[in-house]
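Thread amino acids onto this structure.
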């Protein structure tokens, strides 16, 4: 029998960019309508490096959550070579932060303050291991000699294996994996290693970005790879294996910043992520594993209880429509286009347009 309705524990997003100010007010409602919790990326300008920064950012997020939405931001600190282990420990013990984020310097948007020399962060990593604080990793080398499509696989060999050797008790989330090598490393790794997978990397390969013209709205980092890698990601996400869970990496940038000679990396997937995921899991004959990927596996790794509340997804005859572009006080923002109609509707009042502060402009 064809499944046309699904009830899941409310999902969490284990990797989300909310930005700040006007952009945050525009994008946050799309996440808070659907997700109960999200790991909030710290790559603001300037980055969220100290406990006080995280507290202030958390309070700005809490103040921007629309009335009626039940959403908990799980804060992270941006790991630098001068991060203070005592500050980290105090922030974790106070319940203020859930993880630290390692950006190799220069790997992506606002990563200039990231890490150049792993040796310098070992004392902090050792303290994190002792306290059980997870490390979220942007796993790409920045060596200009390394082809951009190989940067994840080379990171595993050159950096990740070294970190795991030196601090084996550290719990690591290899974020937004995009390759067969990433899947295999995590699948075969010990219990301290897990991975997030984005919605978009389950849907597009690199052709989406490059065939028929350069399509900046399909450019993100890590960049989408060949088809064989997308298929490996689909196998991992739909496997039910506890080590793989959803981190959307929804990363909004204004159209003016993306449609440019040097366009920013990132896709804004928050408005239609759940519909896209249901579509993918249905295609893979794995609708019964969507809850593991989106709602159960993440809390296991983060040592949190899964959400008690539920959401319903309903497959309808009519497509789930979200605006192609969303207005912010600073300009327009393009929503991820999966390239096919979506029929799964999150059964939440006004999901396609959840924010009072949001002006939608269909173009
Ligand atoms: O595509 C991306 N966008 N990848 C990242 O790692 C950062 C993110 C952003 O902040 O825009
Ligand atoms: Zn990200």
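Threaded sequence (363 positions):
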């Amino acid at each position: 029998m064809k499944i046309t309705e699904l009830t899941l524990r409310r999902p969490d997003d284990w990797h989300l960019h909310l930005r700040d100010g006007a952009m945050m007010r525009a994008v946050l409602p799309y996440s808070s309508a659907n997700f109960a919790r999200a790991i909030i990326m710290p790559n603001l300008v300037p980055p969220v490096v100290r406990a006080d920064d995280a507290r202030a950012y958390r309070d700005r997020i809490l103040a921007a959550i629309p009335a009626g939405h039940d959403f908990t931001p799980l804060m992270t600190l941006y790991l630098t070579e001068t991060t203070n282990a005592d500050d980290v420990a105090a922030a974790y013990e106070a319940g203020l932060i859930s993880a630290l984020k390692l950006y190799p310097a220069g790997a992506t948007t606002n990563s200039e303050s990231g890490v150049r020399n792993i040796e310098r962060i070992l004392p902090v990593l050792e303290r994190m291991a002792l306290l059980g604080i997870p490390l979220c990793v942007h796993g790409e080398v920045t060596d200009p000699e390394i082809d951009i499509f190989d940067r994840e696989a080379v990171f595993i060999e050159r950096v990740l294996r070294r970190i795991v050797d030196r601090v084996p008790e550290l719990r690591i989330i290899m974020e937004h994996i995009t390759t067969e090598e990433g899947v295999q490393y995590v699948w075969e790794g010990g219990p301290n290693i897990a991975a997030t997978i984005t919605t978009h990397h389950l849907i597009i390969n690199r052709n989406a970005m490059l065939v028929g013209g350069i399509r900046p709205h399909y450019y993100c980092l890590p960049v989408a790879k060949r088809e064989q890698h997308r298929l490996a990601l689909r196998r991992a996400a739909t496997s039910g294996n506890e080590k793989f869970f959803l981190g959307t990496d929804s990363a909004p940038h204004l159209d003016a910043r993306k449609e440019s000679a040097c366009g920013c990396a990132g896709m804004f997937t928050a408005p239609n992520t759940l519909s896209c995921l249901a579509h993918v899991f249905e295609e893979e004959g794995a609708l019964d594993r969507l809850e593991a990927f989106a709602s159960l596996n993440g809390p296991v790794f983060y040592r949190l209880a899964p959400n008690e509340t539920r959401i319903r997804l309903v497959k309808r005859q009519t497509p789930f429509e979200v605006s192609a572009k969303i207005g912010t006080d600073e300009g327009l923002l393009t929503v991820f286009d999966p390239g096919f109609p979506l029929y799964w509707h999150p059964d939440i009042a006004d999901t396609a347009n959840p924010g009072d502060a949001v002006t939608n402009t269909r173009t």
